[in-house]
C-alpha cells in the first residue's frame, strides 16, 4: 500500500527534525546525561514535529544501543515501537479519549512494569481536549508517576491547559518552520522520489504550508500525482491559487483607481473556478508583502517569493502610499470575515475591489472614533454661530499645554526665527493612525519650528479649533511630535486671521501719535 510522504519521510532521529534545534539539542543532552524528566509537554502549531519528537524520544529512552542521544533504529525495541508491536509505548488521542474513565484506566495500567522495554511511555496527543475531571484524575499520577513511566503531552493550544498540569511538566515550544528550511526538505524528498521541483515551486509550497512541514508534504504529494516535474504553475493549480500576475494586475488597478479593470480580472478568475475567499486571502498576503517592503529594513529575509516577483512587488510598493496599503489590508480582512459569515463571495469580492478603487467608499478604520470627532466638529461650528454669553466669573488660567495666542511682538520674533519642519508630513501620517478625520483637517498644512514652538500654518481653521478645544487630542499630537523629533514642543499658529489687520491699525495709530508729537514706545 502507498504511504503518504509525511509518513514515509517522518524523521527517525533528532538530527532529521527540521527547524527545532531548541528542542532536539536539549532532549539529546538530557538523554546523554541520563537526566530524564517524568513528564514532557510539547506545544506548538500543527505540523511542526511534536508527534515526531514524541516517537523519537519514546524510542531513545528504551533503545538497547543508543547513539549520542539518538535511538539506533536497528534494535528489536526500536523496530517494535516503529511497527507497533511493543505495547509499552502507548499513544492516546485525547480528542476521542477525554473522559475520566479513560484516564483512570491509564492510571491503573501505569502501575505495572513494562513488558519488554525499560520505560512505559504514554504519548497523549491534543491533551488540551481532556475534560476537567480527566485533568484532575491525571494530576496526581503526573506529579508522582512510577519510576518506570514517562508522560509526553502534546498540544496546539497550551493556553487551555490548567496551571497545575503545566507546572508538573518540562515544557518545549516548537516554532513554525522557516519557509526556506521547508523548501530545502521538499527538494530532498523530491530527489529521493525521483521527481524534480523548481525552486520557485518549492518556495511557494513552503509559503502555503505556513510553517507546517506536514502540510507542505501533503501538498507536495498532490503535486507529484500531476507529473514528475513540479513547476510553480502546477502548485498554484493544485492549491487552487490565482496566478501571481493577477494579484499584481488587481493591485495596479487599485493603485490607479480603475474599478472596472479590477472587476474584470475578478470576473475572469471566477469563471476559471477560483475561490473568491482564497483570492481575498492571497490579495491580503500580497498587500502584506508590500507593507513589509515599505516598513522593514531587510524585507527580503521575511518575504518568500521568487526574485522576479520580489522585484515587481518592490516597484509596486514604491509607488503606493503606506496608508493605502495598510487600509487595503484592513478592507480585505473585513471582506473575508463577511464571506465566512455567509455573504455571496463573488459579490463581496467585487464590492471590495470597487471600494478599494474608490476612496470615498472606503470604510472607516475606526468608525466610532471618527463619529465622535464628527460630533465634536458639529459642536464647534454651532458654538461659532451661537457663542455663549459670558458670565462674570474669574477667568481660569489656561492649561500649560493649551494653544494660546502669543502677543504680536512675540509672534513677530517667533516667525523671524522659524525654520521649516521637514518631519511635519510624518507627524500627520502618525496622526492619521489615531484619527483619519483629524489628520485630514491638517492636509495641505505646513509647520515651522521656532524656539519651543511648532507653528502650524493652514487655511483650514477646523484643525486649530480641534486642537484648542480638545485637551486629549492636543496632548496626542504633542506626543507624536515628540516621538518623531525627540523634542517636546508647544503648539501654536504661524499666523492668525486678524493679525495683519491688527498690526496695520496699530502701526497707523503709532504714526498718528508721532505726527502729533506724542512720544511712542515702539516696543509696546
Work out the helix count: 24
CATH superfamily of the largest domain: P-loop containing nucleotide triphosphate hydrolases
Let me know the number of strands.
11
Give the proportion of residues in helices.
40-55%
Q: What is the CA-CA span between the terminal residues?
A: 101 Å
- Taking all residues together, what is the mean pLDDT? 83
Give structural notes:
By secondary structure, the protein is of the alpha/beta class. The chain folds into four domains: 5-174, P-loop containing nucleotide triphosphate hydrolases (Rossmann fold), CATH 3.40.50; 179-239, Helicase, Ruva Protein, domain 3; 244-361, Up-down Bundle (Zinc Finger, Delta Prime, domain 3); 369-382 and 402-524, no CATH class. The protein contains 24 helices and eleven strands. It has helices at residues 5-8, 21-33, 50-60, 76-83, 100-110, 132-143, 163-166, 179-193, 199-209, 213-224, 232-239, 244-255, 259-271, 276-295, 307-318, 322-340, 345-357, 367-385, 408-417, 424-434, 436-441, 462-469, 471-485, 499-515, and strands spanning 39-44, 89-93, 120-125, 149-155, 170-174, 196-197, 229-230, 419-420, 446-450, 453-457, 490-493. Strand 2, helix 5 and strand 3 form a beta-alpha-beta unit. Mean pLDDT is 83; it is low at 393-402 and 499-505.
Amino acid at each position: 500500500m502507498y504511504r503518504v510522504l509525511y509518513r514515509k519521510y517522518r524523521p527517525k532521529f533528532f538530527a532529521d527534525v527540521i527547524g527545532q534545534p531548541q528542542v532536539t539539542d536539549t532532549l539529546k543532552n538530557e538523554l546523554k546525561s541520563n537526566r530524564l524528566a517524568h513528564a514532557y509537554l510539547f506545544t506548538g502549531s500543527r505540523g511542526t514535529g511534536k508527534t515526531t519528537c514524541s516517537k523519537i524520544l519514546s524510542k531513545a529512552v528504551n533503545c538497547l544501543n543508543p547513539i549520542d542521544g539518538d535511538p539506533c533504529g536497528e534494535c528489536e525495541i526500536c523496530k517494535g515501537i516503529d511497527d507497533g508491536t511493543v505495547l509499552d509505548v502507548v499513544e492516546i488521542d485525547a480528542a476521542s479519549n477525554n473522559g475520566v474513565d479513560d484516564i483512570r484506566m491509564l492510571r491503573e495500567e501505569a502501575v505495572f512494569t513494562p513488558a519488554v522495554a525499560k520505560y512505559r511511555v504514554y504519548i497523549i496527543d491534543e491533551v488540551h481536549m481532556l475534560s476537567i475531571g480527566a485533568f484532575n484524575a491525571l494530576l496526581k499520577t503526573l506529579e508522582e508517576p512510577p519510576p518506570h513511566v514517562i508522560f509526553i503531552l502534546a498540544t496546539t493550544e497550551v493556553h487551555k491547559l490548567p496551571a497545575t498540569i503545566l507546572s508538573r511538566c518540562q515544557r518545549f515550544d516548537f516554532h513554525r518552520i522557516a519557509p526556506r528550511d521547508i523548501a530545502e526538505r521538499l527538494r530532498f524528498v523530491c530527489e529521493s522520489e525521483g521527481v524534480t521541483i523548481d525552486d520557485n515551486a518549492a518556495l511557494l509550497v513552503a509559503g502555503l504550508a505556513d510553517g507546517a512541514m506536514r502540510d507542505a508534504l501533503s501538498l507536495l504529494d498532490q503535486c507529484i500525482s500531476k507529473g514528475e516535474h513540479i513547476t510553480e504553475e502546477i502548485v498554484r493549480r493544485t492549491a487552487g491559487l490565482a496566478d501571481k500576475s493577477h494579484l499584481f494586475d488587481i493591485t495596479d488597478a487599485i493603485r490607479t483607481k480603475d474599478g472596472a479593470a479590477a472587476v474584470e480580472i475578478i470576473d475572469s478568475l471566477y469563471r476559471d473556478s477560483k475561490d473568491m475567499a482564497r483570492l481575498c486571502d492571497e490579495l491580503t498576503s500580497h498587500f502584506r508583502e508590500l507593507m513589509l517592503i515599505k516598513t522593514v529594513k531587510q524585507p527580503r529575509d521575511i518575504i518568500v517569493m521568487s526574485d522576479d516577483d520580489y522585484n515587481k512587488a518592490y516597484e509596486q510598493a514604491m509607488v503606493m502610499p503606506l496608508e493605502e496599503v495598510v487600509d487595503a489590508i484592513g478592507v480585505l480582512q473585513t471582506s473575508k470575515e463577511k464571506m465566512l459569515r455567509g455573504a455571496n463571495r463573488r459579490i463581496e469580492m467585487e464590492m471590495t475591489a470597487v471600494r478599494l478603487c474608490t476612496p470615498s467608499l472606503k470604510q472607516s478604520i475606526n468608525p466610532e472614533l471618527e463619529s465622535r470627532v464628527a460630533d465634536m466638529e458639529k459642536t464647534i461650528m454651532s458654538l461659532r454661530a451661537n457663542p455663549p454669553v459670558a458670565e462674570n466669573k474669574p477667568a481660569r488660567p489656561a492649561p500649560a499645554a493649551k494653544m494660546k495666542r502669543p502677543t504680536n511682538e512675540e509672534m513677530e520674533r517667533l516667525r523671524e526665527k522659524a525654520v521649516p519642519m521637514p518631519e511635519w508630513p510624518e507627524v500627520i501620517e502618525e496622526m492619521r493612525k489615531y484619527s483619519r478625520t483629524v489628520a485630514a483637517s491638517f492636509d495641505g498644512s505646513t509647520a515651522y519650528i521656532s524656539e519651543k514652538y511648532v507653528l502650524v500654518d493652514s487655511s483650514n481653521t477646523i484643525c486649530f479649533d480641534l486642537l484648542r478645544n480638545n485637551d486629549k487630542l492636543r496632548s496626542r499630537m504633542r506626543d507624536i511630535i515628540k516621538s518623531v523629533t525627540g523634542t517636546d514642543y508647544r503648539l501654536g499658529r504661524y499666523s492668525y486671521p486678524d493679525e495683519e489687520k491688527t498690526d496695520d491699525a496699530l502701526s497707523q495709530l503709532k504714526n498718528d501719535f508721532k505726527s502729533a508729537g506724542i512720544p511712542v514706545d515702539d516696543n509696546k
